[in-house]
């Protein structure tokens, strides 16, 4: 494997790892939400505090980080396969972290800010919801571009090979 490919794989693995670490931190928020207190055994003491948000919001934010971090690892592992039919693999290296960070950051708004799911943009209601929406939007659009781009490249390659 050439050094350029390894450089791209390292970039994806590092971003995936950072996103997984963010998911782990969100997991502590989820734990504190569920228990209604901030405590970590064996550290002595606890703080009675109900984290904001809902069970579903915390679970989703935590899982978005896990899924997106692992997705970047998977893309890193598959990069040599993709490079066999994608002319310029740099977009396979740049776009996925943008998608992942966008989705993980935006999904973190919902447990922390009331009604900030980011599903719809409505400038007249909730600023944090609109910020979450604007963070989600590029990730969602790029997800379609990314997957469709791989599909088109794979189909072209398959036609040439047959």
Throw out a few tags for this protein.
single chain; 162 residues; mainly alpha; 2 strands; 73% helix; flat
Element layout with pairings:
Elements: H1 3-35, E1 37-38, E2 47-48, H2 55-83, H3 90-107, H4 109-112, H5 127-161
Antiparallel strand pairs: 1-2
Helix pairs in contact: 1-2, 1-3, 2-3, 3-5
What does this structure look like?
This protein has 162 residues and is mainly α. The protein has one domain (3-161). 73% of the residues lie in helices and 2% in strands. Strands 1-2 form a two-stranded antiparallel ribbon. A hairpin with an 8-residue loop joins β1 and β2. The longest helix has 35 residues, at 127-161.
Radius of gyration: 19 Å
Number of strands: 2
Q: State the end-to-end distance.
A: 26 Å
Q: Which secondary-structure class do the elements indicate?
A: mainly alpha
Largest sheet: 2 strands, antiparallel
Could you spell the SSE succession in H and E letters?
HEEHHHH
Briefly summarize what is shown.
It contains five helices and two strands, in the order αββαααα.
């Amino acid at each position: 494997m050439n050094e350029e490919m390894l450089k791209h794989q390292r970039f994806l693995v590092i971003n995936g790892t950072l996103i997984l670490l963010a998911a782990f931190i969100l997991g502590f928020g989820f734990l504190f939400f569920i228990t209604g207190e901030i405590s970590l055994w064996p550290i002595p003491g606890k703080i009675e505090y109900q984290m904001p948000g809902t069970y579903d919001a915390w679970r989703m934010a935590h899982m978005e980080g896990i899924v997106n971090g692992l997705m970047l690892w998977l893309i890193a592992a598959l990069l040599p396969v993709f490079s066999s039919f994608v002319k310029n693999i740099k977009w396979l290296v740049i776009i996925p972290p943008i998608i992942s960070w966008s989705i993980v950051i935006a999904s973190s708004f919902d447990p922390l800010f009331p009604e900030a799911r980011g599903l719809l943009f409505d400038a007249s209601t909730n600023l944090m919801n609109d910020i979450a929406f604007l963070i989600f939007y590029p990730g969602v659009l790029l997800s379609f571009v990314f997957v469709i781009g791989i599909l088109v490249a794979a189909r072209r390659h398959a036609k040439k090979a047959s």
